[in-house]
Amino acid sequence: MALTDRQRKQLRTLAHPRKPIVIVGQKGLTDNVMEEINLALEHHELIKVKVNVADRDERSAAVEQICQQTGADLVQRIGFIATLFRRNLKKPVVEL
Description:
GO terms for molecular function: RNA binding. The chain is α+β, with helices and mostly antiparallel strands. Helices cover about 40% and strands about 20% of the residues.
């Protein structure tokens, strides 16, 4: 589901005080990292992920890969931090 501009703004507001929950290190997107991202999205719905990759294009590719594999929507990306949202239909945490 694509997010509207109003929903993105609301999610950015909610995500502002939060710290990154998952940090992608030098080894990149391993299976364990993807599993942690999936668990965090299932539990929190709205998370921040820090991608520690020096090259900007590789960072963008990593964030895009995370979104594709998890089914999450990219709310925003600033520098090394990406904010992701995936709605949990069973136990919604964030009201849009």
